[in-house]
Amino acid sequence: MRAKVDVEDLLKIVLVLVIVWFALEIVGGVLGLLGDLLGPLRPLLGILIIGLIVLWFFDRI
């Protein structure tokens, strides 16, 4: 048996996928620009984010 899917539903799925792809491209560009501005501080920023996540996980925040 084949599933019956309307053309409109397929177009909605494709539209959502394109919007998600476009949003990811924008976020990647912004983060790339931010990474260029931060330069050598990027590893420290990553350690800070990991530390905040660990503190939140152990309910220290």
UniProtKB/TrEMBL annotation:
UniProt keyword annotation of Transmembrane helix present: yes
Domain of life: Archaea
InterPro entries membership: DUF7554 (IPR055976)
Transmembrane regions: 12-34, 40-58
Keyword terms, alphabetized: Membrane, Transmembrane, Transmembrane helix
Name by which UniProt lists this protein: Uncharacterized protein
Pfam families membership: DUF7554
Lineage of the organism: Archaea, Methanobacteriati, Methanobacteriota, Stenosarchaea group, Halobacteria
